[in-house]
Amino acid sequence: MQEPIFIASPPRSGSSLTGLLLHSFGLWSGDTKEANEFNPKGFYENLEISQLLIDYLRENDTENLGKRYQPLILDKTDSSIREKIFDIVKSQGLKEDQPWFYKDPKIAICRNLLVDAFPNAKWIWVNRSQDRTIRSLMRTDFMDAYTTEKEWASFLAVYGFYKLDLQLKTNVFELNIDKVMNKDQSEVDRLSEFLGLEADFNLSKLLI
Questions:
Q1: Are 26 and 95 in contact (CB under 8 A)?
Q2: Structural domain contains residue 206
Q3: Cα 124 from Cα 173, distance rounded (Å)
Q4: pLDDT digit string (tens) for 138-176?
Q5: Can you tell me the distance from the alpha carbon of 148 to that of 134, in angstroms, rounded to the nearest whole number?
Q6: 183-188 long-range contacts, Cβ below 8 Å, gap at least 24?
Q7: 5 near 63, Cβ under 8 Å?
Q8: What's the CA gap between 124 and 17, in Å, rounded?
Q9: Model confidence, pTM
Q10: 152: which of 84, 129, 142, 173 is 20 to 30 A away, CA to CA?
Q11: Structurally, how many domains does the chain consist of?
């Protein structure tokens, strides 16, 4: 099996749009969460793999903080997680030589678990302007951990640390999702070079 490509970012920062881009490159994502009003083109989150991360976070959330659980350093690894994830993607139909990706906002928190399990994986970090991210967080019903702009700004600052920590440990490509939203094809070209795959789609048509 090929090593995965991980999409990491804060929630509501454009990771689902990044998933759409990778899907348009022909990458496999498996059985994913269905689209809804908040992400009408799809979430691109593999439900079974996400459940593994949910279980991992719950096991380590000793203070029962739930959605507010934001450990800066979560070092606990699991030697079986690689095999569990490969078992999931195989059962969902991933072929031996097929490139694939996994996207979930929890990836950034669980980064050490995944870096340990997949040391040769490629990583994409999605950058979106803080103002746009906060506005999206505050108008999305299921993002209810915090209620004020100040609280969400502090939340995003923690993700800023996650990104820096991840950059020290692995190969991270930073995608400017604001440029993608503005239909800047050059950003897709940069992503294409990083992935080593040809983009045979038009960004403007994809975002209609």
A1: no
A2: no
A3: 5
A4: 999 999 999 999 999 999 999 999 999 999 999 899 999
A5: 9
A6: 183/207, 188/21
A7: no
A8: 12
A9: 0.95
A10: 173
A11: 1
* Separation of first and last alpha carbons in the chain: 34
Report yes or no on 192 lying in a domain.
no
What is the SS3 assignment for the chain? CCCCEEEECCCCCCHHHHHHHHHHCCCECCCECCCCCCCCCCCCCEHHHHHHHHHHHHHHCCCCCHHHCCCCCCCCCCCCHHHHHHHHHHHCCCCCCCCEEEECCHHHHCHHHHHHHCCCCEEEEEECCHHHHHHHHHHCCCCCCCCCHHHHHHHHHHHHHHHHHHHHHCCEEEEEHHHHHCCCHHHHHHHHHHHCCCCCCCHHHHCC
pLDDT digit string, tens, across residues 77-104: 999 999 999 999 999 999 999 999 999 9
Give, in degrees to the nearest 5, the angle at Cα 11 between 165 and 94.
Answer: 85
Q: What is the CATH number of the domain that holds 97?
A: 3.40.50.300
Q: Is residue 142 part of a domain?
A: yes
Task: Say if CB 173 and CB 125 are below 8 A apart.
Answer: yes
Q: Is residue 18 part of a domain?
A: yes
Q: What is the extent of the structural domain holding 90?
A: 5-179
